[in-house]
Amino acid sequence: MSITRYRTSSGEPRWRVTWRLPDGRTRSKAFGTAREARAFEAEAVTARNRGVVFDPYRGDAFSVAAVYASWLATRQDVTPKVRRGFEDNWRLHVQPAFGAWPVTTVDRESIQVWVNAMGCAPRTRRWRHSLLRMILAHAVAEGLLVKNPAERTVFPPLDLAEHLYLTHEEVADLATRCGPQGDIVRILAYTGLR
């Protein structure tokens, strides 16, 4: 792995990081600053030390839709109902937004804009986002991405429902109105049975 400085045809300085893949092929990537090049090199070294084949261009060949299909095929642990939920969430929300994108072009900002544009409750936003997060986590596990851009998404606060409780007088009134079933109302109200 090496960093070399060079100049473009217009005379601007650039830094090229060069590294070798396990099969012997050489790859390189250019950066506008030495700092960016060093950060990229550190990321590559860290990935190599973790035993991950580092090839930032590998993910360019895979769309988010292809990674979704691969991820769904690995999810044999879910019930048919959960699988249908994943498929519906994908078809209605994630695929229209990201399905055709190369997996390497999905970034944190794009995901945040998508989440912010959803016109639904905070819990629904989290559910829709969770599918994309799991798909991108699969891409990381497969070596298509170095890190998951969906990990640091910010959500609006959850709407916490206010709990309403009957007073003793309201329970007594309800039990009286229920006639012979009033004892059941009292048991349910005061014992917490479900």
UniProtKB/TrEMBL annotation:
- DNA-binding as a keyword of this entry, yes or no, is yes
Source superkingdom = Bacteria
Which SUPFAM superfamilies is this protein grouped with?
DNA breaking-rejoining enzymes (SSF56349)
Native organism is: Gordonia westfalica
Q: Cite the entry's keywords alphabetically.
A: DNA-binding
Report what the protein is called. Answer: Core-binding (CB) domain-containing protein
Q: What InterPro entries does this protein map onto?
A: DNA_brk_join_enz, Integrase_recombinase_N
Q: Name the Gene Ontology molecular function terms of this record.
A: DNA binding
Q: What is the lineage of its organism?
A: Bacteria, Bacillati, Actinomycetota, Actinomycetes, Mycobacteriales
